[in-house]
Structure formats: C-alpha cells, structure tokens
Here is the input.
Amino acid sequence: MELYQAEISPRRKACCRYTPTCSHYAAEALETHGLWRGTWLAARRLLRCRPGTPGGSDPVPPAAG
Here is the structure.
C-alpha cells in the first residue's frame, strides 16, 4: 500500500471521488479492522468508486467495541 501511495499515485491524475482517497481508505480499514474485515471494506469501497457516483466524505467505520 505504501509503495502505491509513494510511487504510483503521485504520477497519476487525481480521479478518486471520495475523501479519503481509496488507497488511504484501504490502509486505514486494514489498520482499524484487521486483514479480513479491512479487505472486505476496501473491496466494497473500490466497487463504489466509479463514474457516476456522487462521492464525497466516506470515512472508515469505527471498530466495534
């Protein structure tokens, strides 16, 4: 994830419709929820990030408990 954010993302045109960006969302989801739930949340986010989506603020949900 860090490699993408440091090397690839800066060379691409900004296209993410959400805040935080999808890569930051995925990193935070993995950190907050662990491997399985974090991966599920990141995959759902990537499926929502497409043309025609209004976007906007979409923070990672807090950990339960």
Q: What stands out?
A: The helical segments are 2-8, 22-48.
